Each structure stands twice: as C-alpha cells, then as structure tokens.
Amino acid sequence: MRRLLACIVKDALLLWRDKTALAVLFVMPVAMVFLITLMFAWAMELTGDVPNRIVLVDEDGGGLARTLVEQLHASGYTDIATDLDGRRADADRMKAAVARGSFQIGLVIPAGTMRGMKDQARSAMAGALQIGQFPSTQAAAMPLILMYFDPAIQGYGRIITQSVLERITLDIELKEKMAALSELLPARINATIAGAMGDTGAPPRDFLAGVKVLPEDWAKESLAGVEERQAFESDLAKKPNSNQHSVPAWTLFGMFFIVIPLSGSLILERSSGTLLRLIVSPVPDIVLLAGKALVYLTVCMTQFVLILGLGKAVFPRLGAGSLETGSAPFSLVAVALCASCAAIGFGILMGTAARTFQQASAIGPIAIVIASALGGILVPAFIMPRIMQQVCAFSPMGWGLRAFQEIFVRGGTVRTAWPWMVYLLAFAAACTMVGWILLHRRRRFGAAEA
Amino acid sequence: MSINPEAASKNPLAPVLTAAGVEMRYPKMPQPALRDFDLSATEGEVFGLLGPNGAGKTTAISIMCSLLRPTKGTVSMHGLDIRHHTGAIREMMGIVPQDIALYPTLTARENLRYFGRLYGMRGHALEARIMECLHWVGLEERADHFIKTYSGGMKRRANLVAGCLHSPRLLFLDEPTVGIDPQSRNLIRERLVLLQKSGTTMIYTTHYMEEAEGLCTRILILDEGRTIAQGTPRELIAATPGCANLADLFFALTGKQLRD
C-alpha cells in the first residue's frame, strides 16, 4: 500500500508540474464546454434537430392511423413503425422505447379519437347551423393525439413535428367538418325554406335572409389536439437544452484528453530508462500502473465535477438553460468512473503502442476527435445517416454519452445505463490488456535491438 | 561512509550471482543473441562485461537482472533461482541504467524518495539516507533542484545514487560514466571503489577499457553472443601476445572493424 502511495505521489507531482498537460486537461475542456454550450444555446433552441423515427400506437382503430401515416410519409417522416419487437405497439412499450432512445417520437391515438372527431365535427356544424340535436363543442371533451418525445430532441425538432401533426389533424378536421356540413346543411335549408314559404306555397322575396351566415370562426374551432407528454417516469420536468447536451458531451471529450499526458508519461518512462529501473524494482508492475491510473482517475473525476459545477451554477446565468442531472447521483458517479476507466485504458494503449511522444501527441488527439465525432459529441448521432449511426454504436465516447444522457435526461439509473457502462469497462480492459502485451513485447524486442 | 553496510556476508568467496548455460533466442532472429553464457561473481567483486555493439551485453544484463527470461540456462543469486524468487532477488539488487533514469521534473530528493519507497524505505531513515547518498556524490547542495536543471555529470551522479539508495548486494551498472566531464567520471570511479570495498558486487559494462582495467576484478568479453574471454584483466593481457593493456586485448579479440 505504501508503495502504491509512493507511485501516486510521484505521478501526481509529475502531472502538477506539467503545466501544458494541466491546461489540456482543465482549461481546454472548460473553454470548449463554455463556448460550445453558449454558442449552441441560441442555435439549438431555434434550430435543434429534426427527428424522424416515429412509433405509432393505434388504440382507436378508426382509420385515423392510416391517414396519419400517409400524411407523415408525405411530410418527409419516412421511418414510422406501428409494431415493436414483432408485435403491435402498445402505449407502455412505446414509452419505454422512446425513453431509451430507440425512437425519437411516440404517437398514441387513444380509443375513440376518430369517433370523437366526427362527433365534434357534427356538433360544431350543428351549432353553427343552429340545429339543436347535437351537443355544443364546448361541452364535449376534445380528442387528443398524444405525442412523446425522446428527451434528447431539441426545441425546433419538437416544434416542427408538432406543427406537422397539427396540420395533419387540421386536414382531417376540415374533412370531417365538410362531411358534417354536407350532411346537415340540406336539412337546415329545407327547414328554412319550409318556414319561409308558410302556407302560401311560394317563397317570399327575401327568404334567403333567413338562412344565417355561418359564423367566421367555425372552421377555427379545433376538434382534436396534439399534446406533448413525458415518455418516462421522472421528476425531470424541464425540456433538455444545449447545456444538457454540451456538459456531458464535452466532459467526456475532456476526460479522453488525459490520453496525451498519460501516454506521454508512459513514453517518457520507457525512453528515459526509468521504466527499466521500475520493472526491476520489487514492486509488481500492476502497482506501478495502478498508481498512475489512480492519479488520472482523480483528474477525470475532477474534470467531471468541475464541468458539471459550471453547467449547474454558471451556464444558466449566461443564458444556456439549467442543467438537469437526473435524480441518481451515485449512478452518475458510476458512469463517470466507467468513462474515466475507458479514457485511462486508451491512454495506456497509446502510451505503449506509440514509439515516441511525437507519435502519441499526434495520433492521440486525432483519435479522440474521430471518436468524439463518431460518438455524437460533435454532431448528435440521431441526425447522422443510418450507416453512421450503426458505426456510432462502436464509439466509447458514444457509449459514455448515451450513459450520461440516460441519467441526465431520461431519468435513468445504473439499472438502465448498465449496458454502456459495461461496454466502457470492457473497452478499458481490452485497451489495458493490449497495452500490457505490447509493453512486454517491446521489452523483449527492445533488448533484442540493443 | 559505507554505502552498503549490510553487504558483507559470512563467506566472501560464495558466489553472489551465478549464470549457467544461459542462452537467449529472440523470435524471428536466426542466431541466438546469447549462447553458453556462464558467469559467477563473488562478494565485493566488480565483474566487467565488455564487448562491441550488438555483442549481447544488454541481453546478458537484462537476463541477470530478471528483466528477460532466458531460453535456456539458469540464473541465481545467493543460490536462489531468479525465476522462482524474483521478488526477493529484486529486493537485493540495484540497477544504474545507461540512460538517466530519473524524472526530470522532480528534484533529486523527490526522485530518491520515490525510488526509496519502492524498496520499502520510509520516514526519517529514508530522508537521512537520501541526504547521505546525495552528500556522497556531491549533490547535497542541489538536493531540491529539478533534475532537468542538472549538468550531465550531476545527472550521472544522481543516476548512480538512485541505484545504490537501498544498499543493494548486487548492482548492475550499464556504462555509468558515458558522456560526462572528467571530474564527475573520477568521482564516480572513486565511489564505485568504495562500494566494492563495502562488499557490493557489481556487474559493470563500459566501452572505456582503461576504466574497466582499473576497476574490474574480473572481466568477460562477449562477441556475437559468445563468451570469447573470461578472467582477471592481468591474466588475460598476459596470456595474449602483443597486448600491453586491456584495450589492446579487446581489439586483438574482437577486431578493429566497425560494429554498428
């Protein structure tokens, strides 16, 4: 234990005195998250991302679903499912699918919606024509199509989809109102004519004055509405904002930048001969590596707390929206630990695979930027082409981001984020193992070269 | 001062380090890097390992200091097989690599404190030992300066004491005086003599023949992985006609052609 402590103190001192590394680890990610969050705060509120994966639950069976699907297709929404896992979608499974991000929008057409719309149309027309046999539109409950959003979908994406749905329902309303009008208007005209002719059998000169002009607002009365609801059970009431996305995304980005000082430290030890001195010391290799890993784990967690603190306390004051961190702090820490382990594993791999510090400092950042692009850090994964989305599924940063979002915006815990946490840990283990093998191979071939 | 007060054993003629029939083959290499390597060093002996570049010196040292596992043969220290008692043997050995194996952004004191702790030293005893060692190589005034600010000679001296801090019984020195000023080289040689007198066994590689001749009790000359001579410098020089010193002997045995 004392030897492990000695390794930790040594690596902490080395890092503390490397001002460039500290700048890369703390100033760079803080500056990035600061700038990106604020820059996108405005842009994302306005533009967001247009979602396109929809799951539709038809509890009504009245033909509205078919019309809705046709109209959505015509509006450019090409990926619409009515089945989930080979079975007809129901509300509970739809909500679960949307909450975990498998679909971006869930729509429910509750039972009786079509009937309700027809009744509303007839009632509205009857009211307009002063035919007393239908209840007023004010008295009957307005049927609602329920809309569930993936919490990752931003402002404009939501607004666009909601607008499209409202336009579609308006079309359907008009059709139903016209049908009701066609049905009711002849009766009203006949009744008016009969009343005007009286017993003479001939209409008076001004009999048409008795047919009241339709009120102007009849067409504006909604027969059905679209209402947005949460797809998950959570205390998280606010919609995700730029802060919500940028903080976890750029925290991960910063965490993975430990690759540069960590790999540099390993390469320095190897090239200076210090590693030789360490290996022939009585301390097991695993303790030497653990000392280094624990220092960088602390760095990653400090980055996490620092950026989270900024997101929570500072960014909202600058107009970036509040940061919801979910209601599972321990799960959040667990995800941050897993992401840190993945970053450390990658750093160890870089430190052993690269022959020189120049190689590591060139390849490391490029690899991080590529991984972050693939992982949805730079560009959200769901607006990428399907093939790229499939590639994203293999990015450690993508796993980290999914796990963070699971807890931040979907109200998840370790129970729901565990698959990505396992991927991160597996990645860390694989990188460390390959690094270990490379180190031992290099030790053998290094001796051969000498 | 005694740099290694605990080194003296009851039987000074008992071998401290023994290598027997050692052979090392690297993957994809047609010839073994080392073959039929035998060495036996007793207490307080400075055993010189000489040879041109690529002769197998580093391979031999890597095997003897437990860094590499040989393809054939055995290495033991005080009768303990290095394969089975690696931890215990590593506690008793020290190494002074050819490179300055120190952290440039740590001070000499911080470097030595770290390496001392790796060998289980701590507290006041460690701090006192650090100052003793730094004083021994004339660096006590610069104890709290970063290694990166040291001159080449100072770095070499600090590199030497980092290997001796824990009073090893067996010390591997890989060209400890390469590329430094004459004063620092002289001081290091003086300190190595003191170490020898205190009973520390040293395996020493160098390309400076006059240094090896003055310091080593026995030498082993390697070429292309084979041992081509082994004995005291005086015996070997005397046994080779036309050789007045170790440099003459070295060229006589290995030739004057370049080895890159």
What can you tell me about this protein's structure?
The complex is a heterodimer of chains A (450) and B (260). Chain A has 450 residues and is of the alpha/beta class. Chain A has helices at residues 2-16, 19-46, 64-74, 91-99, 113-129, 155-197, 242-256, 259-272, 274-279, 285-314, 329-353, 357-374, 386-392, 396-408, 414-449; strands spanning 53-58, 79-81, 83-84, 87-88, 105-109, 144-149, 225-230. A five-stranded mixed β-sheet of chain A has the order 2-1-5-6-7, with helices on both faces. A two-stranded antiparallel sheet of chain A has the order 3-4. In chain A, helix 2 packs antiparallel against helix 7 (242-256), helix 7 packs antiparallel against helix 10 and helix 7 (242-256) runs antiparallel to helix 14. With 260 residues, chain B is α/β, with parallel strands linked by helices. In chain B, strands 6-7-8-3-9-10 form a six-stranded mixed β-sheet, with helices on both faces. Chain B has a four-stranded antiparallel β-sheet with strand order 2-1-4-5, covered by helices on one side. In chain B, helix 5 runs parallel beside helix 6. The radius of gyration of chain B is 18 Å and the shape is globular. The relative contact order of chain B is 0.19. Classes of the chains: A alpha/beta (450), B alpha/beta (260). The interface between A and B is medium-sized, with 29 and 37 residues.
Summarize the structure.
Chain A is α/β, with parallel strands linked by helices and 450 residues long.
